[in-house]
Amino acid sequence: MSRERLYLFDTTLRDGAQTNGVDFTLQDKQVITKMLDDLGIDYIEGGYPGANPTDTELFLQKPALRHARFTAFGMTRRPGRSASNDPGLAALIEAKADAICFVAKSSAYQVRVALETTNDENLASIRDSVKAAVAADREVMVDCEHFFDGYKEDPAFALACARVAYDSGARWVVLCDTNGGVMPNEIEATVREVARHIPGDHLGIHAHNDTEQAVANSLAAVRAGARQIQGTLNGLGERCGNANLCSLIPTLRLKQEFSDVFEIGVSGNRLATLTQASRTLDNMLNRAPNRHAPYVGESAFVTKTGIHASAILKDPATYEHVAPESVGNRRKVLVSDQAGRANVFAELERANIAFDKNDPKLGRLIEEMKEREAAGYAYESANASFDLLARRTLGRVPEYFDVEQFDVNVEQRYNSHGQRITVAMAVVKVKVAGKTLISAGEGNGPVNALDVALRKDLGKYQKYIEGLKLIDYRVRILNGGTEAVTRVLIESEDEEGERWTTIGVSPNIIDASFQALMDSIFYKLVKAGATV
After folding, report:
1. Which of the four pLDDT bands, split at 50, 70 and 90, describes residue 308?
2. Does residue 337 register a pLDDT over 50?
3. 186 exposed, middle or buried (CB, 10 Å; 0-12, 13-18, 19+)?
4. Beta partners for 135?
5. Which residues lie below 8 Å from residue 254, measured CB to CB, with a gap of 6+?
């Protein structure tokens, strides 16, 4: 039996751009558009032409896409204006796009309070705008804003808004849970009722995540007949975000309830790039990825306790609902103070560290690891530091260089513009291959200055660390009082995009940071195959 087509609509670049702290450049939008097209998304909403210079420039030339339809977003004609005399509508029709997505009120309350117009004028605005875009040979869709809340208040009017959009030629009528507060059972019942009036293969769902149910609501709408899902990568969006396509896409492809019935544009091969796409977006936005995100998070396929690790080594299906490789992620078995030998063996195998199960050094490794974790180290969060601890215990990490001394000073002064600033200066004395090297670095804080100085000149090893960069720095105070112990985690990335985390623990935050910095550099040298 042939499967029914289900369409994916991405609004990362428009609705996702409303996320607090997110600001896409023109180049960002162009790069993300290509990435979404490569993934297999059906519709890519680029933005709102005419609303800001970036979006206006984006729609001056339609991108060359292999799969997706490039979509412009905007409002229906304003109340009191004709379709031929509305600048916003004109900008949408002139935009170089395959499709236009209009946003229109479908709640009598919103029409009365927000638009301050009549129900009849609102319906006429939808009708005129859709007909104008269809006449301009654009594929048209209408986001029925506040549809579910409006349906509760006045179902006849909400349905009339959806119906007039469809009757006027809209390819898609998208039902929006704009405030994000509707429950899945309500979504399913309402969509099922609407599908009695508008064919399901013309209905879409746009869900916000204010009750953490945007994905569930989207799937409920599909069960009830909707055949387009709108969402964003990583669930970006205003307030609590939108339906997360990084959760929806693998669910649709890998869960039998949907995969047996529906076909989506994301192939199995492209699904395996989903984790990379998710992390690329976070990288571009300079955001730390959500480690606990379903499917694509770093912790999505992590096992910690020994009994679970032992079972996973026998058969991953014992504790995994899908294969991590199917979404481009990977399995990890953490080592911690709860670890049994199975955890440690699995992590050594993951790190490609050769070992003999009967080697007495392994017992010392487990005991040292537990002693360190009792002191505040957390190797489950610092894979690279565990790698180095294991290699050193087994006698396999060269002493590339030795830091004989470092000094860090923080100074507050006036700059050349008369502004009071705080500057940190660090000096590091390093011995490399019998030669002493002294380097100085300046930074916006003591750790930044120490990092700059440490990596300024490592002699023959300098070439190995040119592509190394630190992308995240996290500090946690483990206990209170004047002798509080500090834990520092540093996340690093190399020129190939591989990431790792290192850890330092000390009552002195600079010392803890230095430990983590040193581990990061040593791990890079080991990974690069540097020799003494």
Report:
1. low
2. no
3. middle
4. none
5. 271, 322, 326
